[in-house]
Fold:
Amino acid sequence: MSTTKWSVDPTHSEIGFKVKHMMFTNVSGQFTKFTAEATTNGDSFEVASFSFSGDIDSVSTGNADRDGHLLSGDFFDAAQFPKITFESTAFNKKNEGEYTLNGNLSLHGETKPVSLDVEFGGIAKDPWGNTKAGFTITGKINRKDFGLTWNSTLETGGVLVGEEVKLAIELQFVKQ
Structure:
């Protein structure tokens, strides 16, 4: 079977995250500049490999001051660590249309193994004849595992920023 390359369609994809603020609400953000690729045997994603690279300076939470703080040395330190990357190590079927994606996530100078849940939406041709494949990816990481330790204590005894970061990713790939 021949190897097939797939490239992300950024206009139909999102790299999102949520983190607790003041212990009781979530702040959402996303990376707006990124690339992702998949390699498959033919059109089958059963043994696919995935890679991703995102520009840290494309982080957007809808608030310019917060985004500026995230880019600073308190958080991402975008000047020193301009990319977030992921390389898969395994893609295993759990149930029909459900997979576990394991790989190495590199962020802020640290590389750690992560495990993500994947829902495979299927493969279809778009109106222009392009073959597309869709995925919904979710998971959680602890930001402290990647050296993102800045916080502020609240008067109530809690902290301003939660440690757990929830990932919410939508990827649409185009067959090359």
Q: What stands out?
A: The helical segments are 64-71. The CA atoms of residues 10 and 93 lie 25 Å apart. The chain has a mean pLDDT of 88. The domain at 3-175 is CATH 2.40.128.110 (Lipocalin).
